[in-house]
Amino acid sequence: MNIVIVDDNKTNLMIIEKILQKAGYDCLVSLSSARELYQYLQLDGSKPGAAVSVSAEVPVDLILMDLMMPEIDGLEACRTILAHERYEDLPIIIVTAMGDSYKMAEAMDAGALDYVMKPINKVELLARIRSVLRLKHEKDLRKERDKRIQHELDLAKQVQLSMLSDPIEKEDVTISAVYQPSFELAGDLYAWYQISPGRYGVILLDMMGHGISSSLVCMYIYSALKDTITGMCDPAVVMRELNRRMNQLQMPDSLENYYFTAIYFVLDTVGQTIEYVNAGHPSGIAIVDGEVKLMRNSCVPLGFFEEIDVTKGVIPYKDSARILLFTDGLSEWLEEQYGDAVARLISGLRENEDPKELFENLQPNSETMNGSKDDMCLVMVRTNRKRE
Predict the structure, then answer these.
(1) Partner of 331 for a Cys bridge, out of 17, 90, 109, 341, CB 3.0 to 4.6 A?
(2) Which residues contact 47 (CB under 8 A, 6 or more apart)?
């Protein structure tokens, strides 16, 4: 253990050194002032609240610091050191000859973990050191575990993002999306596949909740999407199959059942139809030949029941179609800002041909939606007139 002792009295330094050395603590550094401590820790700032920078973190496990020192006392030094994020968890024990309870409370408020009274009691000093070092060890383990978990979560996010379909721009159709995940692992997923010449299956789903469990369920559903959509095609059949898959995950003894809302449609640019099923999802918006059509709910969310009634909707078009799908993270945010999310999205769909432009224009000013607690996703599909 690396222990730093700070005291302007050389006799006190020597006494504490001898006690610690006999107890088996060999890595000791003795300093005579807070200024020397700043230099040892490579701190530039010397005042509480001042900007503090560290060129490299110095390995210190504990500081034993005298309260009353000339120029910079122990309280001020304590605040300055703990103000830097690299040393914010560094344990400090205040050593003092003062019995003033207010001063002791002030030391604890400054961030010190404990205090020892002078004259030094060997048994008390060692007991307090062991207690504080035990706490630091537990904090270090927790920080290391949190760092490892965060690394794994970041990796999981990258895996999730890699699953999302790439934009399609063909002679008959353009499909693209914009996606802004929340700070947690995402529960939103979109995908599209070409089923046959002129036919495209597009799905947007929103898994219940957030975090690791929802993310894993989302990946499980993703693993079945391509074969289900390209093999079964029909929206009603696809939704029943996805519902069956979700029910395979449900455990009888579990208090929590997973489910998701989804909207799936097949765009036929040859037959000029849009066949869709909406499973408890916010209504998709279709502008066909200039007229607005809402792709409303036609069945319950998937995963609630083993058997579900599914009603398929069909929207024909003659000249052009533009379709917008979105998750409730976006619609709820828009309702907070404007009151009528659907009207705002319809207006945006008419005025923008790219989902990124639409997403940017939905924001009231230069502010972003980064503070959202939920994922936000837009999927835009538009038919293109074939060149003669």
Answers:
(1) 341
(2) 76, 80
